[in-house]
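Fold this sequence, please.
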Amino acid sequence: MNSMRMNDNRPPQSIPEYLEQLSQSLAGADPALVQDALYDAEEYLRSELAEQPGRSEAEVIASVASSYGAPEEVADIYRDTEVKVQTALRPPAPKPRTSLLGRFFGVAADPRTYASMFYMVLSLATGIFYFTWVVTGLSVSLSLVVVLIGIPLLILFFGSIRLLSLVEGRLVEVMLGERMPRRPLYSARGRNWLQRIGDMFTDVRTWSTLLYMLVMLPLGVVYFTITVTLLSLSLSMVAAPLALLPGLHLNVWEFGIDIPQQAPYLLPLVSVAGVVLLFASLHLFRGIGRMHGNIAKHLLVKTAQYS
């Protein structure tokens, strides 16, 4: 059945058919790109349909195909534009290094390392906000459902969750480099308001977004703790030789030994170990950033809207 539809090259007769063909033409593309393309296409087609009330949907689609493009042409345009945009937005790539030491210390030249580190620190604040918003919104709206006012509150709450997912997506894309949607879901435009509300409650992405926002609190605590602990520990070890300066009293304890007092000759080794730990921490921050980008992609992005 799918192969038959993929080989069906007849012009689309309705907006859902146009969007389905566009989705099939974008098969294999980034899900976030597909969501943006479908949103833009539906918005354009429905605006043209509203401006030409005397014409059928098939006639409007046929007339705008020459200006907006057939689904295959629009898909090619989006693919080409995505390459240009990603090239323009991508931070300068660090110089490739072939040696083991070069790759280890080269992490300091990657802008994505520091963006990931900042995201890990920021995630504590965003995690607290998301968790509080979800718990408060659900508890208040559900508790008021019995007096009917909770139903519109619940609908507004789910709408706010979709908006927050776009905000989080922008943070993830800018800081972690993972392509996220820049447009909201727009696949229910042709349905009445009751059907749209039903779609909101039955859409798996609504619930996966709620899960993401709840999970962000423990993740934010873990990310913040890892970042602050490793940075403070490694930087304090790097600065350990300063304890030898006259008049400067620094406590450097390792394995229960007060090194400045009992083994000052070990301070340079502690400093070297601190440098190694610092760069290892930068690798960890960048790796966590990539991992979290994948988590956000799987929970916040709708992978298939038309089939």
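The radius of gyration is 26 Å. Confidence is low (pLDDT under 50) at residues 1-7.
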